[in-house]
Amino acid sequence: MRLRRTDVRDGWTLLHLEGTAPVGVGGVRVPAEVPGTVHTALHAAGITEDPYLDDQESAQAWIGRSRWRYRTDFDLDDLGPGLDLVFDGIDTVATVRLNGHELGRPENMHRSYRYDIRAAARRGSNALEVDLESPVREADRRSLELGYRPHVNPHPFNALRKMASSFGWDWGIDTASVGIWRPVRVERWTARLSDVRPVATVEGSLGLLALHIDVARADRDRRLAVSVTIGGRTIRADLGRDTDRIVVDVEVPDVRMWWPRGHGDPALYDVTVALIDVSDPASETVLDVRDQRIGFRTVHLDTTPDEHGTPFTVQVNGRRIEVRGANWIPDDAFPHRVIRDRYAARIGQAKFAGLNLLRVWGGGIYESDDFYDLCDERGILVMQDFLFACAAYAEEEPLRGEVEAEAREAVTRLAGHPSLVILNGNNENLWGLHEWGYVSRLDGATWGAWYYHDLLPRIVEELAPHIGYTPGSPFTPASSGLGDDPDHNDPRHGSIHIWDVWNEKDYLDYLDYTPRFVAEFGWQAPPAWATLTRAVSDDPLTPESPGMVVHQKAINGNDKLTDGLLPHLRLPNDMSDWHWAMQLNQAAAIRTGIGWFRSRAPICSGTIVWQLNDCWPVTSWSAVDGDGRAKPMLYALRHVNREQLVTIQPAPDGLEAAILNDTDQRWDGELLLERRDYEGAILAEAAIAVAVGPRSAQRVRIPDEIGTASSPERELVVAALHGVRALWFFAEYRDSALASASFRAEVSRIPEGYELTVQARTLIRDLTLLIDKVDPAGFVDDALITLLPGEQTTLRIHSTEELDLETLSSPDVLRSANQLVPSVQVMPERPHVRA
Ligand code: BMA
């Protein structure tokens, strides 16, 4: 018989077993969705509020301290030959019982579990129970058993194989939820494909695919064969009665290679593997089929030392890729809700922001296949952390065995995705060992070195040799010659995380770094106004009102926001202005950082900004907030991540223009340089011929008469090459003579909504339409636009609301930096160019 899958999705209930609970919860069977969690079930049943609102986080803390039981009944009409109950994911420590028989005790959210239920199942109705332990108590108990290991945040998440951020993070709600977070099903089968692991690479123009196929059999009575179809060709291999494991090698001549976006098409091939019963040649039967899309590419991480130190350069198909990436966290604190549409929207936003890489951060999860499928299709590279973050981890059992099992399963599942180019041992654990004082607190205990330097690289080499491996992020490669135990965050070597700038300094201090590769750096801002006011009902709403504080998790977050704002803008005492100022400052920080890092090419080969997304409505470093709305930072990314970019940067003796050309065409022409005053008058100008080859960069010194201001507070530099423009302001916003914005606006209807044309009479900096204030579902195609007097721009607004000019151009909605600059506040002594 052909494998039959039946989802066990219906009829689930949830029962509180133990722990303190509000009145009305004990003894009540609550209908529960599977996949799902306790929090989402209780909310759907009307028992609790939405946990993301106001201070529901602490009001619902009892949930994570309780024990719970999921239960359902399902029917079976047949009990064989093979009969399995499969859980794609249980969160986390559980006892699974079928008709009273214990099937197992899972304890790892990052694994799937398969139980042979032939002995426990019966014809007709079957009772399935999943008891879930309190993760808060389990983590505490296990931490004592394994021995204390240092970690960030209050709970010892490092003692349990559960999504670390489920216990809260510096952007994350502490839910400590439990549940059955991925689908459950019954599988009936005779023989099945238990694993299909593609290893695809390229030699010359030849695609080489090795398909590692494992089969499981309910009995040994049958002769089996596999057939593999790719690119219109079918290959068959015999397994006979005894072989359960086979490698089918396929050569694809003139292969179409998979390229990341900006370098070519992300060509994909459909691969179909069929398991066939060939016992009776006259009537062969297909027993199981697996369809997958794969791609052919090579990956190499170049860490060959050079005169600047040790690079960290990602090469795909032999070509150096300038990485413009973002870090990815679980898109929802209840990750079962992140279905294909959510991934598609978010990855669409990543594309909008000009990104070509997403790094799946180690305090989250291995995402579902949809994520990697979409990245494959859209040519977005993926760096996937193994699931370790900001902590020391015991290398003893039971953690040791769980880690190996989960890593093997994840690498096997993900191996076929061409987008996955780097598997990475952990987030910040190598660096943290010294940086955060782990060594002395460990007092000789294991901390995870064996995972990062031994187990995980061995697993990658064995199961996915076509994927790169790094032991950690940040990471100093051994080729640096700095020995076995370097500090791992040295800007001259490998990848680094730049966090001192946000935590202790000003964003202009990004310019003190000339990194080889920046795998994290970021700046905070509140979410979009509509998101914020949906989640926080404080009256008055202020940066430090009760709900706001619950939705700001960073250590001293508000102080850092203020400290980071003041060098550039004054602190507004109006909430709406505060919100805009902080969003603008975040965007300015990120465009400053990336503009500078990119201008350091080829020494710096990439940036991965922290962070693309959020898991709930919160003030954080994200470009897209927890309701999926873009913050201005998303537009800053789009601008500064252009394939062809002009940016003006300070140089030791003045200013220079960096011209970056990440395309296959030359970019030659006249670079027009002007110094203007805020009224638009040209004070000095020059044209310099530039010739920038494909995939290269050129830096041009800006002549002194243009790069030196006579009145810094009212002058700027404009550089333009073929219409691609860069601006340089000699003074900070707050020290400048930026007058209130004067403009003429017009609105017209277009099929998707409106076009708003704004014509500037004065200099307008960072014109941004906060569309969510008038249409929470609206979207604008651009933001942060600076207009010189007389210039105009047209914004395309996607909206189905009735909106008019007055609404769209009201000062609270149509924002500019001008609004934040008191026109009398001129302090020319504050220099922009730092010594
Ligand atoms: C790094 C990340 C995350 C964290 C971020 C912001 O440590 O790896 O753990 O959320 O910085 O603090």
TrEMBL record:
Its EC number is 3.2.1.25. It is an enzyme of class 3 (hydrolase). PANTHER family: BETA-MANNOSIDASE (PTHR43730:SF1). Residues 29-182 form the Beta-mannosidase-like galactose-binding domain. Pfam families: Glyco_hydro_2 (PF00703), Glyco_hydro_2_N2 (PF22666). GO terms for biological process: carbohydrate metabolic process; glycoprotein catabolic process. It catalyses: Hydrolysis of terminal, non-reducing beta-D-mannose residues in beta-D-mannosides. This is beta-mannosidase. Residues 241-297 form the Glycoside hydrolase family 2 immunoglobulin-like beta-sandwich domain. GO terms for molecular function: beta-mannosidase activity.
